[in-house]
Design brief:
Blueprint (H helix, E strand, L loop, with lengths): L1 H16 L7 H12 L9 H18 L5 H17 L5 H11 L8 H13 L8 H10 L12 H5 L15 H25 L4 H25 L4
Helix pairs in contact: 1-2, 1-4, 2-3, 3-4, 3-9, 6-7, 6-10, 9-10
């Protein structure tokens, strides 16, 4: 975990200082990746960090022919380290299985998500840490425009540094993003409901739940449809 955080932070600083010339989304996504990694206070969300790593890998793949060699080498090392971290988070494989099997017939309720995040921000810091609305806002953002996200063995062999094969296989990044934000909101709703049930500040939690409920309802319904629950 510490190695990934250090590598990502170093690459982001190198991009910011102008050592390498690359699209701005690398620095932004690396910064979000560092924020999402668990820290010594157990704050963070590995599934969100893994989503950032997949976006970085997809951009790396798309930009490989024109990417500076030094940056490519650093990104390859980071992604290899990150893939190794997955062994400690068994839920990652289950999550991506849900991405592959999920249905996208129903549109993601964007207005409800924006309203939910805005209300969570209004309830911060009274009920939530500042990192909560920040993380929701990050994952709700559209993914960067990425073309040609698949790299074959022949093309990989042409470059000294290239994206490592993903042992979990390729997934639809947009489906992954939608399930991530839906799942994150679902988990937050569970936390609010638990706060109400245990009686600790029950009135306050209930008020928070009532404030968020109109926005959470269509999101949770979308999530049930996505996962095949009808």
């Amino acid at each position: 975990m510490c190695a990934c955080r250090k590598l990502a932070s170093d690459i982001a600083r190198g991009l910011q200082s102008g050592i390498w010339n690359a699209r701005s989304e690398y620095g932004e996504t690396l910064g979000q990746y560092v924020e999402d990694l668990l820290n010594k206070h157990d704050e963070g969300n590995f599934l969100l960090a893994d989503a950032r790593a997949r976006i970085i890998r997809a951009m790396f793949t798309a930009d490989l022919p024109s990417l500076p060699l030094g940056l490519a080498a650093h990104l390859e090392t980071l992604l290899v380290q990150h893939i190794g971290l997955r062994a400690y988070y068994s839920e990652t494989g289950d999550f991506y299985q849900s991405v592959r099997s999920g249905h996208l017939e129903a549109p993601l309720p964007v207005d409800a998500i924006e309203g939910f995040i805005e209300r969570v921000r209004a309830l911060t810091p009274a009920y939530f840490e500042p990192s909560v609305p920040q993380s929701l806002q990050y994952v709700a953002q559209p993914i960067p425009t990425i073309t040609h996200p698949v790299i074959g063995a022949r093309l990989r062999a042409m470059f000294q540094s290239a994206p490592p094969p993903d042992l979990l296989g390729e997934v639809d990044l947009e489906k992954s993003r939608r399930l991530t934000i839906g799942g994150a909101i679902n988990e937050l709703v569970k936390v609010i409901e638990s706060g109400d049930k245990i009686g600790k500040g029950a009135k306050g939690w209930r008020e928070a739940a009532n404030t968020l409920a109109p926005y959470a309802a269509p999101i949770l319904q979308w999530l049930r449809v996505f996962l095949g629950g009808g």
